[in-house]
TrEMBL record:
Taxonomic source organism: Lates calcarifer
Keyword Nucleotidyltransferase: no
Membrane topology: Single-pass membrane protein
Protein name: inositol-phosphate phosphatase
Keyword Lipoprotein: no
Cell compartment(s), UniProt: Membrane
Lineage, highest ranks first: Eukaryota, Metazoa, Chordata, Craniata, Vertebrata
Gene it is expressed from: bpnt2
Transmembrane segments: 12-38
Length: 344
């Protein structure tokens, strides 16, 4: 009698084994990745350390910006045009500064998302934090405010006001770092490479800057972009009357500084404005640090409709901008004529 048996074809066995391996791999990969996610979730970042790193990054980036300008080696090229047709420039200053700032922050806090205005594949493992916390930060800010790494989005602008940088209008140039926690701006650093001063703030904790003791709002002195069309002038005259003073300046970082008290040694080197308005699209790395500084000093930076801006996700803010400190922000927003930045 022939034995009862199952004939196994070699091909069938091979397919079966492959399927088995596939299933096991699938299950196992799932376990590994969920373990990793759980591990990452437990990673905490001390925000005072992150503030100190942000200051160091802005200062180091600023040194590059200054060096390239002084060596006259800008090597500028166009990145394309903005929606309003202004040329968007990239110089060696932007790039070198980006490399320093981005690598320093990424190497120190590898679990934190860092969004920079510039991109570059150069990885510089040597950029490490000195672990020095400046005395004025130690003085004003308590350590130990830990937040999960994945709740943080860092925005860096390695060179704000590139157009003015190429024109050698260096007072407008800044390097900026902003730390948003769950989309809210919490830490802001605005460094001026050509004066050497650094403004920093940690919302709810402290700042080395102050609001001025008084502001005018009827009418205010309104600071706007140098590269804007005439439309912003009509917008502002509509809002506050035809006698409103309009100051045109480069750089979003600089414009926020113009709302604050100017340190004595810089008297005359920064314009003094009461309100900052922008009526077209603007990127979050341009404005997040200023938003944190203003918030820390009791001020506000919102869209033209008065809405808060979320500093996570997409880099483009499409709602325009109105920023103030030491005044009734809501009253200013209410004066603004209706305007849709998406249509301009
Ligand atoms: C302001 O100027 C515009 C045009 O220049 C004019 O149409 C408008 O009537 C002026 N508004 C006031 C309140 O004077």
């Amino acid at each position: 009698m022939a034995p009862m048996g199952i004939r196994l074809s070699p091909l069938g066995v091979a397919v079966f084994c492959l399927l088995g391996v596939g299933v096991i791999y699938h299950l196992y990969a799932g376990v590994i990745s969920s373990r990793l996610a759980a591990f990452r979730q437990r990673r905490k970042v001390d925000l005072r350390d992150l503030l100190a790193v942000s200051v160091e990054a802005a200062v180091l980036g600023g040194k590059e910006v200054k060096k390239v300008r002084e060596e006259n080696g800008l090597k500028e090229k166009s990145k394309g045009k903005t929606k309003e047709g202004a040329n968007e420039l990239l110089t060696l200053g932007d790039l070198q500064s980006h490399r320093k700032m981005y690598n320093l922050i990424r190497n120190t806090f590898p679990d934190v998302v860092v969004n920079s205005e510039e991109h570059d594949d150069l990885v510089d493992k040597a950029a490490t934090w000195s672990r020095d916390i400046p005395a004025d930060i130690l003085d004003k800010i308590e350590g130990g405010r830990n937040v999960p790494a994945e709740s943080i989005t860092v925005w860096i602008d390695p060179l704000d006001a590139t157009q003015e940088y190429t024109e050698n209008l260096v007072k407008y140039v800044t390097t900026m770092v902003c730390v948003a926690v769950e989309g809210k701006p919490v830490i802001g650093v605005i460094h001026q490479p050509f004066t050497g001063s650094t403004a920093w703030a940690f919302v709810g904790q402290g700042s080395n800057m102050h609001a001025r003791s008084s502001y005018s709002i009827s009418p205010p002195n309104v600071i706007v972009s140098r590269s804007h069309s005439g439309k912003v002038k009509n917008f502002i005259h509509d809002a506050f009357g035809n006698s409103t003073t309009i100051t045109a300046a480069g750089g979003a970082g600089y414009k926020v500084l113009s709302l604050l008290e100017t340190p004595a040694r810089e008297t005359g080197s920064i314009d003094q404005a009461d309100v900052y308005i922008h009526i077209t699209f603007i990127k979050k790395w341009d404005i997040c640090a200023g938003a944190a500084l203003l918030n820390a000093l009791g001020g506000h930076m919102t869209t033209l409709k008065g809405e808060n801006i979320d500093y996570s996700g997409e880099p483009l803010n499409k709602g325009g901008l109105v920023a103030s400190v030491g005044v009734d922000h809501k009253a200013i927003v209410e004066k603004l004529p209706s305007w849709d930045p998406e249509k301009h």
